[in-house]
Amino acid sequence: MDETFSEPERNELQTELLYVVKGLKGQVLNRDSLSVGIEWKKALPEVKHVKADSKTKEEGLKKVCQEMTNCQLCPLGKTRKNLVFGVGNPEAKIVFVGEAPGADEDEQGLPFVGRAGQLLTDIIVKGMKLERKNVYICNILKCRPPGNRNPLPDEINKCEPFLKKQLQIISPKIICALGTFAAHTLLKTDIPISALRGRFHSYEGIKLMPTYHPAYLLRNQSAKKPVWEDVQMIMKEAKL
Ligand code: URA
Hints:
Layout: H1 7-30, H2 54-68, H3 76-79, E1 87-88, E2 94-98, H4 103-108, H5 115-127, E3 136-139, H6 153-170, E4 174-178, H7 180-187, H8 193-196, E5 201-203, E6 206-211, H9 214-219, H10 224-237
Parallel strand pairs: 2-3, 2-4, 4-6
Antiparallel strand pairs: 1-3, 5-6
Helix pairs in contact: 2-6
């Protein structure tokens, strides 16, 4: 028995090691090596996105939105007031992906219009010096989970193909995944957001920055600094 570490220390190290191995596996399999400067040999080919003009992208998004107008693929179809598809510029360089609509979003049919939405708007407008209408904002789930509970795996599985189409059509330069659910769903990992943030990952050949969710930021002032660091990395990469 190794006496160097106590039982809790050993458990903590084992967990940490697991995340390191998972992270390395992600780097090898998904070309997730953008901020560590390593050229991985065994990388998947990047997806070539078809360049389209803004009219084509707008029409493409409209079509996907129409496809899901009366969606009943999961039980949230029964409880929603409005489906919240997404808003913004179909040609946006940056797409923000949140978790799911809350009460305000369900009421208005628009993403990020409540308190967390105001904070996201401040990040975009005051922090990035962009207009909200020039980025694109959407969620993993398009319908509100009752009582703002966490999305269920079946709901995510049913809704994700629509998000995938949205992202393929917009084909942005950068995706910003807001919070655990967005990051875990898009990156197919369960590594904590605290370990994922701060560097770019790859989603189908598109650079993806995970950061803390604005709702978390409202409750944790200490998350302000890391979020600002992540946002600055996005701005640098997008050449803003
Ligand atoms: N939180 C989200 O994740 N999305 C919204 O649209 C609003 C709050």
